[in-house]
Amino acid sequence: MRVYLDCVPCFLRQALEAVRLASQDLSIQEKAIRVILQKLSKISWNTSPPHIGREIHTLIKEVTGNPDPYLPLKKRFNQLAINLYPMLEKKVKTANDPFTTTVRLSLAGNMIDFGARPGEKIDIEKEINGALKAPLDKQALEKFKKAVTQAQNILFLGDNAGEVVFDKLLVQEIGPQKITYVVKKKPIINDATLEDAEIVNLTKIVKVIDNGTDFPGTVLSACSKTFINIYEKADLVIAKGQGNYETLNDVKKPIVFLLKIKCPVIAKDIKRNVGDLVIHLNIY
Question: What is the pTM of this model?
Answer without folding.
Answer: 0.95
